[in-house]
Design brief:
Blueprint (H helix, E strand, L loop, with lengths): L3 H30 L3 H28 L20 H26 L3 H30 L4 H11 L19
Bound molecules: fe (ii) ion (2 copies).
Length: 177
């Protein structure tokens, strides 16, 4: 059985991951409406990743036979003044999630819950990648502020964040999308 304190924190994290999903859908739709299809596609894909993170956490709780609560989420931000703001918001969000996952790992360790600690490690590694990808993208959109097509061309050429299937990823409830 995972430690009760860990189960509580993981249920909170499920809400954060679904919140990140909603925020990235909102960002993707914003770019889509601006006819910036590569930026839109990037964020639609990021949104799916966040949904999968939430469902991996749900599966962990299901496997452990403890309560997995599907939360409501706060409304995401939907209004942005330029192409930079959504990416700056996304980077802030990824940094916050990195801190949250570190806290999760700390709770597991403090409780002597080694399986749960091990479960958090994949997410810690994933956060390193997501923060790096998002800070690269922030630099690109900052340079493309006056010419968003530069960012579109960069995304078409480099295809950041498209690592393909990760066999080390934890299983997701319902199967990863
Ligand atoms: Fe995530
Ligand atoms: Fe993320």
């Amino acid at each position: 059985m995972p430690a009760t304190a860990f189960v509580e924190r993981l249920n909170q994290q499920i809400a954060h991951e679904f919140g990140a999903h909603q925020q990235y859908v909102a960002v993707a739709v914003h770019y889509d409406a601006e006819t910036l299809p590569r930026l839109a596609t990037f964020f639609y894909a990021q949104a799916l990743e966040e949904r999968n993170h939430a469902m991996m956490m749900v599966q962990y709780l299901l496997d452990a036979g403890v309560d997995a609560t599907i939360p409501g989420v706060e409304a995401p931000r939907t209004q942005f003044d330029d192409i930079v703001e959504p990416v700056a918001l996304a980077l802030e969000q990824e940094r916050r999630v990195s801190d949250q996952i570190e806290d999760l790992a700390k709770v597991a360790r403090a409780e002597g819950d080694y399986l749960s600690e091990q479960f958090t490690l994949w997410f810690l590694k994933e956060q390193v990648e997501e923060v790096a990808t998002m800070s690269d993208l922030l630099r690109i959109v900052e340079r493309s502020r006056d010419n968003p097509m530069l960012a579109e061309e960069y995304l078409a050429r480099e295809q950041p964040g498209e690592a393909g299937a990760d066999p080390t990823a934890p299983p997701a409830a319902g199967g990863a999308l």
